[in-house]
């Protein structure tokens, strides 16, 4: 479960970076 959570956080961080790049 902890591993899955870590992956989710990583994806969320990547998404935020993408949004920043788009902006």
From TrEMBL:
It comes from the Eukaryota. It comes from Arundo donax (Giant reed). The lineage of its organism: Eukaryota, Viridiplantae, Streptophyta, Embryophyta, Tracheophyta. This is Uncharacterized protein.
